[in-house]
Amino acid sequence: MKLDSLIPAPLRKPPKPGQGSGPTGPAPADLKTSPPERPSDAERATGRAKETPHDVLAWVDQRTGAAGFLTGLLYRKVPKGTNWFYTLGSATLFAFITQAVTGVFLAMFYTPSTSDAYASIAHINNDVFLGSFVHGMHKWGSSVMVILVFLHMGRVFFFGAYKYPRELNWVIGVVLLILTLAMAFTGYLLPFDQRSFWASTVAFNITGTGPVIGPYLADFLRAGPEIGATTLSRFYSIHMLLIPGAIIALIGAHLYLVVKLGTTAPPWLRAAKPKTAAPASQLDAGAEGNGAAAGR
Ligand code: HEM
Question: pTM, whole model, 2 decimals?
């Protein structure tokens, strides 16, 4: 069976220019000598059932035009020479999604109050089905995400992928990096055990020594001169509402730019000079479109 026939029509790879989408197989048999058999009721029902997902997708596509965006995303060209280092961005995205999913389950049992937070975490770890597994994934996953985001940033830096026209994506990335670190910081206080209390105290004190805005920022984060009930609920709302919302919006913008500008070719391939100089008009056209096509 051809793989293409399994993909619903709106999401199929668009034909290349010059290639028709019509039938390519052998001509149909002579209809006079072998008339087509009429399908049975069961065959018709199966055919209709197979078409249903296609119909639903076509219905959604007619109303949203999403197929064009999705085919652009799924079938975008990538330059020659891409390697495992190019998967670090997607790995960071996967780590973020894992954090979001495990975080939702933890939020179902966690109580953000100074008297009950520690007990609710102990309850998750000791009594809830798979609680300690999900808690462990979230706790270790935060370090994994921080490591991956730095590695991804390193790849972008050493491959020179921050240069024109991707400066804005680099800036968005820097904000994503800061927000990722802020997630790790605000999450650390939530178990409200000795370690998280004193580690956060150290972090507040360091913040307070910052120039000009340092003391105000520390006061704002601590919600007063001492760590207390308001600090915990403030950290909880920042950790599970404010920052994830901002990260989701920025990842959307980040990926939009990745798809629009294309992926940067590895520097050792970009260094190879073209044999003949390209006309200026072609160079301009390359700057607008997919960087992959222009070999950038
Ligand atoms: C939550 C954090 C982040 C996520 C989920 C994310 C995701 C991605 C993905 C999936 C790609 C495309 C695949 C790839 O090139 O690896 C990408 C590309 C890119 N990212 Fe990130 N990223 C994040 C953080 C950052 C940071 C911290 C920076 C830099 C400060 C950055 C700068 C870039 C740039 C410039 C590109 C384009 C690379 C190219 O054209 O070759 N990203 N990102």
Answer: 0.80
